[in-house]
From TrEMBL:
A Pfam family that the UniProt record links to this protein: Methyltransf_12
Keywords: Methyltransferase, S-adenosyl-L-methionine, Transferase
Residue ranges of domain Methyltransferase type in the record: 62-155
SUPFAM superfamilies the record matches: S-adenosyl-L-methionine-dependent methyltransferases (SSF53335)
Methyltransferase is among the record's keywords: yes
Protein name: tRNA (Cmo5U34)-methyltransferase
Keyword Nucleotide-binding: no
Gene Ontology molecular function, alphabetical: methyltransferase activity
Lineage: Bacteria, Pseudomonadati, Pseudomonadota, Alphaproteobacteria, Hyphomicrobiales
Any one biological process term the GO annotation gives: methylation
PANTHER family xref list: METHYLTRANSFERASE, UBIQUINONE BIOSYNTHESIS O-METHYLTRANSFERASE, MITOCHONDRIAL
Recorded coiled-coil stretches: none
Signal peptide: none
Amino acid sequence: MSSPDTVAAAAKFDPERAAEYERQSRIALAGYEACHELAACMLAASLGSGRACRILVVGIGGTAQEVVAAAELEPDWRFVGVDPSPPMLALAQARLEERGLAARVDLNLGTVEELAGHELFDAATLVGVLHHLPGDDAKRAILRAIASRLAPGAPLILAGNHYAYADKPLLLKAWGERWRMFGADAAEVEAKRGKILQGADPPPSEEAVFALLDAAGFTDPQRFFASLFWGAWIARKR
């Protein structure tokens, strides 16, 4: 069943926010494409190139960029995507159809816990999701749900914001300057800053990310990308 925290997080991505997600995600995360490209490369390096693998993509809604990058690199990979937000899932469907990838992806509205079947996946991704879930219990729950669907030793790509935003004033100011670089005026920058300060709950440090992974059954986390508050790691199912 869906947890109340997952439902609440999904509700933030209403049709209006979903419609602006693609542009905004590329501004808020400097290096958006590079992060996804490197994630695909890390998975290929971990799994071995040329294998037929099934990849679980949690929070696929929006750009489906995890699939776009990985599918181009590994033509024998197939994907199962899950997202609890109907508007965001519709965006992913449109993007996959646009790229000619829809036949390689099974899209599911809902959560990992609601995913049908019991076959274990070769790998999973959780990108841009964890900091939207309030509190450590919800974060551990989604990571444990993913771990339960992975074969032993399978890699997980985890990416999202970490650090408490207010504790990193210089990074927060630079984040605002990036929005200004892309045309936002002072009032818009302030509104966006207020939204992330009120509406997200990132792990407060990389050590906290590692602790969440360990508690959920993952080991050997390694960071491969960083951009202001954002980090990306690969870990393995214990």
